[in-house]
Amino acid sequence: MNVESFGDIIKITLPTPFPVGDVNVFLIKGDRLTLVDAGVKTAASFEAFTSGLSEIGYTVDDIEQAVLTHHHPDHIGLLDFLPEGIDIIGHPYCKKWLAKDEEFLKENFLFFRELFLQAGLPPEAETMLGKIQSPLKFSSENSALTTAVQEGDRLPGLEEWRVFETPGHAQSHLAFFRERDGALIAGDHILATISSNPLLEPPLNRGEERPKPQLQYNESLRKMMNVPVDTVYTGHGKEVRNIVPLITRRLERQHERAMSVKEMLKEKPHTAFEVCMRLFPAVYKKETGLTMSETIGQLDYLLHIGEAGVERDDKGVLFYFPL
Ligand SMILES: [Zn+2]
């Protein structure tokens, strides 16, 4: 059984090939039958999706629109199987990730190459760089964002639901809140048992400054503390209630992690890559994108709160030191 009902919110749990495990998608019957998020594009995921739908008397063809919490492959893959021509609603940043034209993918690659160069990755790390785009094979291949929404908007066809921009885990990240019962569909912004990773991504427009996902994430968490949330419907795992203590804990832990990075810097100035190898000796090669995101996140945070400074050497590599 992969279907659970919470009043008019129906949760369907789908398998993914990623370490995170299953992903949750939601069906909401508003003016239009709406799917929030769309799993990965694999046979097993599609099969679980159609059998979940049939348990509650629907087929894929009944879905009238899709709403995306963010553009990651485990949240958009099944869009390709939805009825042609339906509205796909999300943050403007999703547009490029759905279109995935070659120029954009190249831009993405170059963004990481430049960033990793500054971070002090050795030249042989180019192979690690190559892997960064490999999860895309589980993503949607032929769907397009039709409707962009932003902070404060009401979701078309689901007028009770208000949009909150919650960047950090993804630049496109949105959460949807319904005042009537305090329901929050939060994607990967708030998860029950793990703190979600703020991920490095290129800016929305080329040439803009690099987003600082850890700082954005903390800001987006704090924002949710002021919203009267009763139940959070998460992208992975169980529902979450009572979010204020959870958010407080997550923010405190992140501060502690950053301060332990500062301790390393006291030994000698470090590049981001050197910090990364020390924080994640077993996985940095296999999960370079994730571990470098986590590392640079802590360093961005230390710079932001004035606990570290940074200097560039003549090759453009950044060295961080304590303040
Ligand atoms: Zn995600």
Topology:
Blueprint (H helix, E strand, L loop, with lengths): L2 E4 L2 E6 L8 E7 L3 E4 L6 H13 L9 E3 L5 H4 L10 E4 L3 H6 L2 H17 L7 H5 L16 E2 L5 E2 L2 E8 L8 E5 L4 E5 L25 H13 L5 E4 L5 E2 L1 H25 L4 H8 L8 H17 L3 E5 L5 E5 L1
Helix pairs in contact: 6-7, 7-9, 8-9
The structure holds zinc ion.
GO molecular function, one term: hydrolase activity
InterPro entries: Metallo-B-lactamas, RibonucZ/Hydroxyglut_hydro, Sec-metab_biosynth-thioest
Protein name: MBL fold metallo-hydrolase
Task: Walk me through what this model shows.
With 323 residues, the protein is of the alpha/beta class. The protein has two domains: 3-98 and 139-241, 4-Layer Sandwich (Metallo-beta-lactamase, Chain A); 255-322, Orthogonal Bundle (Arc Repressor Mutant, subunit A), CATH 1.10.10. 33% of the residues lie in helices and 20% in strands. The strands form three sheets. A seven-stranded mixed beta sheet has the order 1-2-3-4-5-6-7, covered by helices on one side. Helix 6 runs antiparallel to helix 7, helix 7 (243-267) packs across helix 9 and helix 8 (272-279) crosses helix 9 (288-304). The radius of gyration is 20 Å and the shape is globular. The N and C termini lie far apart (54 Å). The model has no long low-confidence stretch (mean pLDDT 93). The structure holds zinc ion (ZN). Residues 70, 72, 169-170, 188 line the site of zinc ion. Zinc ion (ZN) binds at residues 70, 72, 169-170, 188.
